[in-house]
Amino acid sequence: MDQRKIGIFIATCRKEKGLTQEQLGELLGVTNKSISKWETGKSLPDPSLYKPLCDILEINLIELFDGERIAEDKVVEKADQVIVGLVEDSHKYHTVHLIAKICSYLFTILGITLIFFAKPCFHHTG
User: Fold this and answer.
1) In whole angstroms, what is the distance from residue 71 CA to residue 4 CA?
2) Most CB atoms within 10 A, among 55, 57, 100, 114?
3) Which letter, b or e, does each residue of 7-44 get, where b requires 16 or more Cβ atoms within 10 Å of its Cβ?
4) What is the pLDDT of residue 76?
5) What is the pLDDT of residue 57?
6) What's the pLDDT at 70?
7) One digit per residue, pLDDT tens: the chain, 126 residues?
8) What is the rounded CA–CA span in Å between residue 23 and residue 83?
9) C-alpha–C-alpha distance, residues 38 and 42, integer Å
10) CB atoms < 10 A from the CB of 116, how many?
11) Which residues contact 36 (CB under 8 A, 6 or more apart)?
12) How far apart are CA 21 and CA 57, in angstroms?
């Protein structure tokens, strides 16, 4: 999923509807700054807003996630591509998250080990 492409698409659709960022934000219950972050690709809308956003912009979820309009005869094909992309992104996220978790555990174990086994090394006989 390309956040920047999605953001540009949201901005384009919003402008086609003649809405300002503030007006779209009011319709969705968010600030115009949130809309700006979406449109610049800095963040994505909360998942609870996907459907209302699509309804307002008169697009479907596949178009939103793909960041472009899709011809009716290509929707199923494009849906498959978008879903595969989402699954791949999910796997990447989970892999990075798992590696971070493992590193965290290893550093904790290393720290505990150093505390217990390093004490005798620092014993001072004065």
Assistant:
1) 21
2) 57
3) bbbbbebbeeeebebeebbeebebeeebbbbbbebeeb
4) 77
5) 97
6) 85
7) 789 999 999 999 999 999 999 999 999 999 999 999 999 999 999 999 999 999 999 998 889 988 999 888 887 777 777 777 777 777 666 676 667 777 676 667 666 666 655 555 555 555
8) 31
9) 6
10) 9
11) 21
12) 12
- In SS3 terms, the chain reads as CCHHHHHHHHHHHHHHCCCCHHHHHHHHCCCHHHHHHHHCCCCCCCHHHHHHHHHHHCCCHHHHHHCCCCCHHHHHHHHHHHHHHHHHHHHHHHHHHHHHHHHHHHHHHHHHHHHHHHHHHHCCCC
What CA–CA distance (Å, rounded) separates 95 from 93? 5
> Cα 50 vs. chain centroid, distance in angstroms?
12
- Rounded to 5°, angle at Cα 92 from 87 and 96: 145
pTM over 0.90: no
Are 70 and 62 in contact by the 8 Å Cβ rule? The answer is: yes
Q: Which residue has the tokens 């999605």?
A: 6
Q: What is the pLDDT of residue 85?
A: 77
Structure tokens at 33: 């700054």
